[in-house]
Write a structure and sequence with these properties.
2 copies of one chain form a homodimer.
Chain A (H helix, E strand, L loop, with lengths): L7 E4 L2 E4 L3 H12 L4 E4 L11 E3 L5 E3 L4 E2 L4 H9 L4 E3 L5 E5 L5 E4 L10 H15 L13 H5 L3 H8 L3 H15 L8 H11 L2 H5 L8 E3 L5 H10 L3 E2 L4 E7 L2 E6 L2 E5 L1 E5 L2 H5 L2 E3 L4 H8 L6 E8 L9 E7 L7 E4 L8 E8 H8 L3 H16 L8 E6 L18 H9 L7 E4 L11 H22 L1
Parallel strand pairs in A: 1-14, 2-3, 2-15, 3-11, 8-18, 12-16, 15-22
Antiparallel strand pairs in A: 4-5, 6-10, 7-10, 8-9, 12-13, 13-14, 17-20, 17-21, 18-19, 19-20
């Protein structure tokens, strides 16, 4: 391995790269086991693709991951350990659909019972759920028809199962909402794997009892900050890792100013960020290939703040899905647990994100507010505060919520390239999770898994 | 833009990132136009994915790109300008096919006239050629059914056009041989675009009059070295670029030790290497998305050297295609223009590369030599010299021959993300070429195009 002069030299049992939920969970597990570790993080803050901001007036907004559902037990337990409270996502009243032709239609209940394409949409998603039940989430490549499903896109599958253009629009918005991708760029098998890892289509799509069930009183970064406080000086922010070398003796991780020598490393980054590091020796072909078939989703969140959640007075929940030509795909009532202020959050995904992100900021805001007015009333066009986070432009995340697999990624590279350790380097990150892959919960369980593997291998070393 | 201290500061009209054929061609065009430029290259040598080595005894071997065909006029003209000679690829005698069941069958002519799957293979490739004629190679997204063809893999297309397993094997080897990828991971539209850019399936596959027509007497890097000599001190090797910033005034390109300030930049790197650079401001979503849907092919070349090309004495050409369970897909007679020594080159691609690259070096060599013995006789198992280059493990190239597009890449990102300049940063590299995309010739024309655009924009600035 290389030698360096003029750098801070740190020695530790384990070095963790990345202080998102995966890296922090790994550090916490090592801490609990009494194993010494150091965490190096490129950004000046923790929590990665979770980003809680306090706006003027003390309002807490989540620009990134924000929800927790009842089966996301790793996240719930972590929050409970550090006393981070949750509250049910606001959803009382009528939801709204804005159809392709601009028609605005309210409905009650988790999903509309009727409307253009609903029957076909429901039929096709039931087929997806049936196929997802065949997936082996611990060893996805062992799934009976993995290669067949992985050789086609979700789009090919949808079009071979329905010719109903409204149903195709609903299916596309589903893909946009969950993967921040378009059906034409994502592997059908990856969709099935992800459904299996979450517990089915309804778990991914719905609110009460599902992935969007609850929010965090102090924001979704609160548990991450609590872990960071516990780690103290073992956590080093603002240190992008440029090089990771290993030999029989251990691992060396280099940032611009620091060299960490350790017996094991846990790399807990999104796939593209792993590829930006120089590894010595180079990564195995299957690991590198896995990473290069994992683009990040395209997403932004825009928040608009009002005196009160005025839409509730007219019987509206603030939840909406939009199929029109505006930028917004989905709207939620993101107001705090208390009664005020009122907050709407607009999600911009996929192709709509690409077009919208190129506009100047004023035009972006105007378009989002026009969409909000369509679903919550004209008053939504005049917020007290407006803020947006384009994750595709984030220096470190470069997209969100997570990376998805393009066709062939699982087939060609999954068995050795997904999360099998590379010598003394172990892999974490929500993209390596078998349960709630792509979610905060998956990030946490992936960190625990990697830490447990490292503890086991250190014990085997003696 | 950021400020730096303690770095070499260089000022130039144009800075070029990458000294492969694309970057060198751009520099040459600027040189000829009297425009000042500096070229920074990460590796300690020029020519990128072309790598000529002189072995013991003075034998010249090409580990990377090696051929030139009669319609590759940019490469032919560049070679002529610097007096780099070519000679016809050795192909006299019977070629060999090793079938799936291990049967070894010789044939005469460019392609076997009969054999398992030949008729169906020929029929499907004719359909591909027909569809390729509809492609607009200058603006591929304007192709009539671009979105439809881009939403599926080549595998989906092949399986919907034939159920003949031998034809499917032939089609797969074609994809492996041209894109170093498997049919299940490549966009059908990308295959069609690439066919159109080269002039059809036969141009890609065959030798005489086609892409594999001739080789370079002094190796395929000879023209690149000639350009490097001409550039002299304007070429800076061993300087990986880590950051590119721009504002209205121009561009700053930073390596570990050097800062280059210029009015324009031309970035001439493979897609993954562009993504490893930090851009300020960040790349547009469409450019970043384009790059993240462009994995590199998986390929290695292995050379075996013998006293003489002994296979010619038994009427064999040394050219072979293999469908068996060995690592090798294609073999060529890579002997020099003179009569000796004899050289066979074995190509290992795709899934076969992934498996083979994980073996220890002795086992890799044994497997390749066993394949060579199958197609050229037992004496092929006892070479005087053996050497291999696993491009997927190359620090800078990380694959070869080029990047291909996964499904949806052209649809979602092509129009703005393929090669449209990003402010003062222009894009070159064979992946941005409209003719012979993926080849040395495409790299050269892409460099000329980018340089011409830069010259035009500098003139417009005044």
């Amino acid at each position: 391995m290389w030698e360096e002069t003029g750098m801070d030299l740190i020695e530790s049992e384990v070095v963790i790269v990345g202080a998102g939920y995966a890296g922090l969970a790994a550090a916490l597990r090592l801490h609990d086991a009494g194993v010494d570790c150091v965490v190096v993080e490129a950004a000046g803050r923790v929590a990665g693709r979770v980003l809680t901001e306090t706006r003027a007036g003390g309002l807490t907004l989540d620009h990134g991951g924000q929800w927790v559902g009842p089966t996301q037990t790793h996240l719930l337990a972590l929050a409970a350990r550090f006393g981070c409270g949750t509250f049910p996502t606001w959803e009382t009243g009528r939801h709204v659909e804005v159809w392709h032709d601009g028609t605005t239609v309210p409905y009650l209940g988790a999903a509309p019972a009727e409307g253009p394409g609903i029957a076909e949409y429901t039929r096709v998603t039931a087929v997806l759920d049936d196929l997802a039940r065949t997936v082996d989430t611990e060893a996805p490549w062992r799934t009976p028809r993995c290669a067949q499903f992985d050789a086609c896109t979700a789009d090919s599958f949808f079009r071979s199962h329905t010719t109903d253009s409204d149903a195709l629009r609903r299916l596309a918005l589903g893909v946009q909402g969950v993967w921040c991708a378009e059906p034409y760029e994502i592997s059908l098998f990856h969709v099935l794997f992800y459904l299996a890892a979450a517990g089915g289509w309804e778990q991914l799509m719905e609110t009460r009892g599902c992935a969007q069930d609850s929010r965090f009183t102090e924001g979704a970064a609160a548990p991450a900050r609590a872990v960071a406080d516990l780690l103290g000086a073992r956590l080093r922010l603002g240190e992008p890792v440029v090089r990771v070398a290993q030999d029989a003796g251990g691992v060396r991780v280099r940032t611009a100013s620091t060299l960490v020598e350790a017996r094991r490393a846990i790399v807990a980054l999104p796939p593209h960020a792993v590829r930006a590091i120089r590894f010595d020796p180079g990564l195995p072909v299957s690991r590198d290939g896995w990473l290069s078939h994992s683009p990040m989703g395209r997403v932004a969140k825009a928040h608009a703040v009002y005196d009160t959640p005025f839409w509730r007075a007219t019987g509206l929940s603030g939840i909406a899905t939009l199929y029109d030509d505006g930028p917004v795909g989905v709207v939620f009532d993101n107001s705090p647990a208390g009664g005020a202020p009122g907050v709407l959050v607009a999600f911009v995904y996929g192709d709509r994100l690409t077009r919208w992100a190129d506009l100047d900021p004023g035009r972006r805001r105007d378009e989002v507010l026009a969409s909000l007015a369509r679903v919550a009333g004209d008053a939504a066009a005049r917020p007290l505060d407006y803020t947006e986070k384009i994750w595709s432009r984030d220096t470190f995340a470069r997209g969100g919520y997570e990376a998805y697999m393009t066709p062939g990624g699982w087939t060609g590279y999954g068995r050795r390239g997904w999360r099998e350790p590379t010598g003394h380097v172990h892999w974490a990150g929500t993209e390596t999770a078998s349960a709630w892959n792509g979610y905060i919960d998956g990030a946490i369980s992936s960190g625990y898994r990697a830490a447990d593997d490292v503890i086991g291998s250190l014990q085997a070393d003696g």
